[in-house]
Design brief:
- It is a single chain.
- 56% of the residues lie in helices and 9% in strands.
- It folds into three domains: 84 residues, Four Helix Bundle (Hemerythrin (Met), subunit A) (Up-down Bundle), CATH 1.20.120.140; 196 residues, Rossmann fold (3-Layer(aba) Sandwich), CATH 3.40.50.300; 136 residues, Signal recognition particle, SRP54 subunit, M-domain (434 Repressor (Amino-terminal Domain), Orthogonal Bundle).
- Helix 1 runs antiparallel to helix 4 and helix 3 packs antiparallel against helix 4.
- The protein has 443 residues and is an alpha/beta fold.
Length: 443
């Protein structure tokens, strides 16, 4: 996400950092380039204009700190203004004081409402809430069936009312059932259209009147740029949305919607969708996002992903084996699977400061298949071979390659790197998961 904008901004900052002093002319030229970069990223024109005015005023009028260069000072100012642009602090859902608390999911057809509803249900469940869902979309074929399937995947109860033909009545009945069954949260997936129309808005307004939800969340496609902002304005004017969930952020190289929404609508971005899996929903943190835009990484989000995905007991067991020089290929496989739970390799590296902008990483998507290949090779080994790789001779390597659908060279490379990894990790004072998180991968 933000790949195009990040590249342009880093190019501008590189020039600024190379100057010993900054005068008003240099700053003005840099701001002109930043303004163009924002507009090319599909940021709202008025938002970009205001942003540049504030950064320019602070850059020229501020006293440069002795500890950092003028160029670094400008980067600091841009970072702070980006944070202000996106809302300063993250905005949490307000679900207190209602039992159950209804959450209406609204948006246009095709924006990903149903999938997002399931993602949100899973996220809230991990936060300790008891969640149920209901689909009130009687127009789109198989809409309710889709939510049922997603409910099964996420372990979320879905209220079923296949005979109902009144969306408002379905929502009201689901709320009553949720109260009787002890659910504290009800996620209501509403119908969408290909465009904003009066019938849709009337239906949503009636549902809002019946449910009186503390949260009405608009699901908007980040890749539509300023169209997403326009849609947010339209929905807010009719049903007063409380926040936005931006989907497909992982596929949006520009980022105009994320940078414009708060300023144009006054509504916070509460979550972002970063993939198709049911756990690919992240809380939106303006400060962290600003750091990622400027190529500074996002260590806090990376740590949170690790805490959610990495099994602590397994990590400790592997650490103990490393200390005793007993790391096996089974342990290596376990490490790879743990890393895979955290997301794609590119996504993880993008969160490390400076790593996301390295040109060598642009083709890393090709290396994602190495995870699968490595696991396949290990799975083709016998238990004795996985526990003691030294017994794997030439004949065994041929058999392993055939069984895994790979070449003998692939097996040789894995075993060679595995031995090197054992030596390297033996020297580490902490567990192997930290070694992997630093990008030292065995392939």
């Amino acid at each position: 996400m933000f790949e195009s904008l990040t590249e342009k901004l880093n190019g501008i900052f590189k020039i600024l950092r190379g100057r010993g002093t900054l005068d008003s002319e240099t700053v003005s030229a840099a701001m002109k380039d930043i303004r163009m970069a924002l507009l090319e990223a599909d940021v709202n024109f008025k938002v970009a204009k205001k942003f540049i005015a504030e950064v320019t005023e602070r850059s020229i009028g501020t006293q440069v700190l002795d500890s950092i260069s003028p160029g670094q000072q400008v980067v600091k100012i841009v970072h702070e203004e980006l944070v202000n642009l996106m809302g300063s602090q993250g905005s949490r859902l307000d679900l207190e004081g209602r039992f159950p608390a209804p959450v209406m999911i609204v948006g246009l057809q095709g924006s990903g409402k149903t999938t997002t509803a399931a993602k949100l249900a899973k996220h809230l469940t991990t936060q300790g809430r008891k969640v149920s869902m209901v689909s009130t979309d009687i127009h789109r074929p198989a809409a309710r069936e889709q939510l049922k399937i997603l409910g099964e995947k996420t372990g979320t109860y879905v209220h079923c009312d296949d005979r109902g033909d009144n969306p408002v009545a379905i929502a009201k009945k689901a709320l009553e059932e949720a109260r009787l069954q002890g659910y504290d949260t009800l996620i209501v997936d509403t119908a969408g259209r290909l465009h904003v129309d009066e019938e849709l808005m009337q239906e949503l307004a009636q549902m809002k009147g019946v449910l009186n939800p503390p949260e009405i969340l608009l699901v908007a496609d980040a890749m539509t740029g300023q169209d997403a902002v326009s849609v947010a304005q339209a929905f807010d004017s009719r049903v007063s949305i409380t926040g936005v969930i931006l989907t497909k952020m992982d596929g949006d190289a520009r980022g105009g919607a994320a940078l414009s929404l708060r300023q144009v609508t006054g509504k916070p971005i509460k979550y972002i969708g970063v993939g198709e899996k049911t756990d690919a929903l992240e809380v939106f943190h303006p400060e962290r996002m600003a750091s990622r835009i400027l190529g500074m990484g996002d260590i806090l989000s990376l740590v949170e992903k690790a805490q959610q995905s990495v099994d602590e007991r397994t990590a400790r067991r592997i650490e103990t084996r490393i200390r005793k020089d007993g790391l096996t290929l089974d342990d290596l496989k376990e490490q790879i699977l743990q890393i895979r739970k955290m997301g794609s390799l590119r996504e993880i590296l993008d969160m490390l400061p400076g790593m996301g902008q390295m040109k060598a990483l642009k083709s890393l998507s090709l290396d994602e298949g190495e995870f699968v290949k490595t696991v396949a090779i290990i799975d083709s080994m016998t238990r004795a071979e996985r526990q003691n790789a030294r017994i794997i001779d030439g004949r065994r390597r041929i058999r392993i390659a055939r069984g895994s659908g790979t070449d003998v060279q692939d097996v040789n490379r894995l075993l060679k790197n595995y031995e090197q990894m054992k030596k390297m990790m033996k020297k580490m004072t902490k567990g192997g998961m930290k070694t992997l998180s630093r990008g030292r991968l065995p392939f």
